[in-house]
Write a structure and sequence with these properties.
The complex is a heterodimer. Chain A has helices at about 10-15, 15-25, 35-45, 55-65, 90, 95-100, 115-125, 130-160, 175, 185-190, 205-215, 225-240, 255-270, 285-300, and strands spanning about 1-5, 30, 70-75, 75-80, 105, 110, 165-170, 195-200, 245-250, 275-280. By secondary structure, chain A is an alpha/beta fold. The termini of chain A are far apart. Chain B has helices spanning about 15-25, 35-45, 55-65, 90-100, 110-125, 125-155, 165-175, 185-195, 215-220, 225-235, 245-250, 255-265, 275-290, 305-320, 335-355; strands at about 5-10, 30, 70-75, 105-110, 210-215, 235-240, 295-300, 325-330. Chain B has a four-stranded parallel sheet, with helices on both faces. A four-stranded parallel sheet of chain B has the order 6-5-7-8, sandwiched between helices. Chain B contains 15 helices and eight strands. Helices cover about 55% and strands about 10% of the residues of chain B. Chain B folds into three domains: about 5-125, Rossmann fold (3-Layer(aba) Sandwich), CATH 3.40.50; about 140-205, no CATH class; about 205-355, Rossmann fold. By secondary structure, chain B is α/β, with parallel strands linked by helices.
Chain lengths: ~300, ~350
């Protein structure tokens, strides 16, 4: 039995985890290839024109998997462990996927407001005919792998911070940051221009800093989105290190980013850190991006 | 402290009812500017580009009031769960401050308790006064909704074109002037009488079209280019379920949501924020009622409505009911909407005639 996982959107929320989880339960896992032009075009053709670019890319990956696997895994992510919501567009993904593909969709609602992750995973295991014991082992293994990765990221972060180059924070969703086709290889371009990139989610949030920000009056509203709270806290944390500039990458028609951008921008501007806002969609040209990045790097010097 | 002068966001004909609350409590209020291309352009100019359309229009409505000296803005938040509406207050406050307006934002959650508290705090009125103001508000609101429904019924049937719209406008003006609860029953009677005096063609068989979608665009005629009136004049009866009473009922009594979820389970198994689920539920309902067309209205890029649109299109393909989805924003021109509407009306008429 093969389970297909689209390498877009929700995959990037937990890379490693799902792959490891299903492989441990004895399934073959097929990931869709890295995003390329054909995938994006296929996705754009089938999805609603006003949907956000990231969702369009997701549908492209989904169509690629159609017919190649026994199940496509599309979880319905609703709330995370902190009881904060994911983007509302994630809520309907399994239903929208069902309209698009013939392959059965394997899905489960991950709503930690109502049920802890362990329970949901056990339910998911039952759906694919695996016992609780097996699911538990697979889950723990997957968590360990995730933890290893996190530690590596942390070490990486401190190594990068120590360097004496231009350091630029990239504020973005993981599915925009890790997908090199989608963000038009912005990391590579910045490195060529001699700047080091630090992804905002790599920033470790210190508990003490957390405590402090609870006490002080926040100048942003209490976000009900998990990434909203995470971003603002991590921006607070990263301002303590020596950062040269900040870039926010958001996909066209991302509703949540429209809200967050206002507060992210305000935060950086208050601390007089240069800020660049990049909007990406299927029509963004590489040459235009290159020019803007070069100009931005020039302002930093 | 300076004297509080209130202004608030406009919402179609219901603005009249909202104004009553403040008037009854003896607060000074500058009513919002009616939505027109100038206010929309003004609002869009200073608001974040990627934000949804209602934020821009409501900001445009408030701006003239602020220039006239208002210093307090009323803004409701959390109208529909996951949607961006929750941050309207925060964003508008930020945007206004950046443009040099010092405003006090009353950003309250849409629960009866929070509304009560906010009003109590700002007006200092007694509970009895607030309850009386609320009662008057609901009376007016119910009447507005009732005459809107009546107008939808009379428009396609009237003999002299334009009579209904005239009666509707006159009634709303009268209602706006009224500020004594004592006179309300008499006015209500008069208004209803003037509606029943409209000459109509009896037993006329006419196609029916339903409006579904985002509540603000569906309810406000100045945002959706007077869609109801346009369709009515073309001899089409318009139905819509969305109004404030519907929304308030859903806020207070959760079981409506449970029914909706049960009915739409084959299509969508979760909430998507806003009134996303309601659109599917209503469309299924109207298909069952054998309507001749559905118009789906949404602000450009509205997250819940964009998410459910593929599902609505699926229902449209399954049932064969004519379907038109219109996204509105500051760059949409009336001429474009008219052209699409004319084509749609032809489709509706054909669909209706083929059924006979």
């Amino acid at each position: 039995m093969t389970i297909g996982i689209p390498r877009a959107l929700i995959y990037w929320k937990r890379p490693q985890f799902w792959e490891s989880f299903f492989e441990d339960l004895g399934f073959r896992v097929l990931l869709s290839p890295e995003t390329n032009k054909e995938l994006v075009e296929a996705g754009v053709r089938v999805s609603d024109p006003e949907n956000c670019f990231s969702t369009k890319v997701f549908f492209g990956h989904l169509l690629w998997l159609d017919g190649k696997v026994d199940w496509v895994f599309v979880p319905r992510l609703k709330t995370n462990a902190e009881k904060l919501e994911y983007c509302p567009k994630f809520f309907a993904l399994p239903d929208l996927s069902k309209i698009l593909v013939r392959t059965p969709i394997l899905t489960e609602t991950f709503n930690e407001k109502k049920e802890p992750l362990e329970g949901t995973l056990a339910k998911l295991g039952r759906k694919i005919g695996r016992e609780k014991r097996e699911v538990k082992r697979a889950r723990e293994k997957a968590f360990l792998k995730e933890k290893d990765e996190e530690r590596e990221k942390r070490e990486n972060f401190f190594r990068k911070i120590e360097e004496k180059t231009t350091k630029i924070t990239l504020v973005s969703h993981p599915y925009n940051f890790y997908d090199d086709y989608v963000n038009l290889r912005v990391k590579e371009k910045l490195e060529k221009l001699g700047a080091q990139t630090i992804f905002i989610e790599e920033t470790p949030v210190n508990e003490t800093i957390n405590q402090r920000s609870k006490v002080q009056d926040k100048d942003y509203p209490k976000f009900h989105w998990e990434f909203g709270k995470e971003w603002m806290e991590k921006i607070d944390a990263i301002l303590d290190y020596n950062i040269t500039g900040a870039i926010e990458i958001s996909s066209f028609q991302c509703g949540c980013d429209a809200v967050l951008k206002e507060f992210v921008e305000k935060k950086f501007k208050q601390n007089s850190i240069p800020f660049l806002y990049l909007l990406i969609d299927e029509q963004t040209g590489e040459a235009g991006l290159q020019t803007r990045l070069e100009a931005f790097i020039d302002t930093l010097r | 402290m300076k004297k509080t002068i209130i202004t608030f966001a406009r919402w179609g004909n219901y603005t009249i009812a909202f104004k009553t609350i403040f008037d009854q409590l003896g607060l000074e209020v500058i009513p919002p500017e009616p939505t027109n291309p100038t206010t929309i352009a003004e609002g869009a100019k200073i608001s974040p580009e990627m934000y949804c359309f209602p934020l821009k229009t409501t900001l445009g409505n408030v701006l003239p009031g602020l220039r006239k000296g208002a210093n307090t803005v009323f803004m409701v938040q959390n109208i529909g769960g996951s949607c961006r509406q929750r941050y309207y207050g925060a964003i508008q406050k930020k945007v206004l401050e950046e443009n040099g307006h010092q405003v006090n934002f009353l950003d309250f959650r849409a629960t009866p308790r929070d509304i009560y508290r906010t009003i109590k705090k700002i007006s200092g009125a007694s509970s009895w006064q607030i309850i009386r103001a609320a009662r008057f508000f609901f009376k007016k609101l119910r009447l507005i909704e009732k005459i809107e429904k009546k107008a939808q019924f009379y428009r396609p049937r009237e003999i002299k074109k334009g009579t209904t719209d005239q009666v509707l406008t006159e009634s709303l003006t009268e209602l706006e002037k009224l500020n004594k609860e004592k006179d309300f029953p008499r006015l209500r009677k008069e208004i209803l009488k003037s509606f029943s005096e409209i000459e109509t063609e009896k037993d006329k068989k006419i196609p029916r079209v339903a409006l579904v979608g985002e509540i603000y665009t569906v309810c406000d005629p100045s945002i959706n280019f007077d869609l109801e009136s346009k369709l009515g004049k073309e001899g089409i009866e318009v139905h819509r379920e969305m109004d404030i009473t519907y929304h308030l009922k859903k806020l207070v009594f959760p079981w409506k949501d449970w029914t909706i979820q049960r009915k739409i389970n084959p299509y969508l198994r979760s909430t998507v924020g806003g009134h996303g689920r309601d659109a599917i539920y209503e469309m299924l309902h109207y298909v069952k009622e054998d309507f001749d067309g559905i118009i789906h209205l949404l602000p450009f890029g509205c997250m819940p409505e964009v998410t459910v649109r593929p599902i609505l299109e699926k229902i449209h393909l399954e049932s064969g009911i004519p379907f038109l989805s219109l996204s509105l924003d500051e760059q949409v021109a009336e001429a474009g909407i008219n052209t699409r509407l004319e084509a749609f009306i032809d489709v509706v008429r054909n669909h209706y005639n083929s059924k006979q």
